[in-house]
Amino acid sequence: MASRINTILVVGGTAGIGEQLVRRFHASGKKVIATGRNQARLATLAQELNGLETRQFDITDFSTLQSHAAGILEDFPDLDTVLINAGIQKSFSFFDPSSIAAGEIEREIAANLTAPTLLVQAFAPHLLSLATKGTPATLFVTSSALGLLPMGFWPNYCATKAGVHALALSLRQQIAFAGEEAKKNFNVVEIVPPYVDTELDKEHREATLAAMGENAFPPMPLQEYIDQFFKALDETETDGSLKKEIGVGTGAMVVQTWRDSFGKVYEQFGMAT
Predict the structure, then answer these.
(1) pTM of the full predicted structure?
(2) Which of 157, 195, 225, 266 is catalytic?
(3) Is 157 a catalytic residue?
C-alpha cells in the first residue's frame, strides 16, 4: 500500500470510519484531502492534523457535485487515490408508513448510491489517465456486509449497498476493456465493513437491538476495525496490486462466500470481477 497511495481524497471524512481513515492515512505520511458537510468538524481535523487539506460540500447537492470534483482535480492534479465513504442508514418497515417519510428514503438512496455513482463518474477518467500512463491509481468504494447479506431492519440501506457492490464490479469490467496498462495500474477496491460502532445507526440502535432480541450482536469497536482494515490493506497481491475487497469480520466472510459462488460464475464467463 505504501508506494501505491500518495495523495488520497477521502469523501465523507468527518466522522466514524471516514474520519479514522483520514487520521490513519495522514499518520502514515500520505497527502490527504478530506471532505464533508460539517465545516466545524473539517476545521477541527485540519487544526489537529498538520498539512491536511479539506473541502466542504454536500455530496447530495448534485447541482454542485461535478464542480467540486473538478475543483479538487484542478488543485491536486497528482491525486492518485479516491475513497468514497459517505453514507447514511435508516431503519423502517414498509408495512408501517409512519416509520419513515418518502423523502427520507430518497435521501438515503441519494447519499448511498446516486452520489457515489456520480463521484465515480467524476473521478474515474482522471484515475484512468494516470493508470494508462503507468502511475498506480486506486478507487475505493465503501459498501457493507449488508450489501451482500441483507437484513430487513435496514431495507433501503442494504439495497443501496448492494448497488455499490455492483458498481465496483461494473467499473472493474470497464477497466478491463481499457487496455493492459489500465488493468495493471488501476485498482478498484470495495471496502466491506461489518457492523462497526459509529454514529451511523445512532438514531435506531437501541430499537433495532431490542427487536433482534437474543440474536442481537454487538458492533465491532471502531479502532479494532481500523486496525484490521489497514492490516488487510497491506496484504497486497504478488504483483503489488491491492485486494479487490477489504472485508473485516462479517465483511470478510460474505466476500469469501461471494467469491466462491458468483465469482466463479464470472470466471466461467471470462469477465473481470
Answers:
(1) 0.95
(2) 157
(3) yes
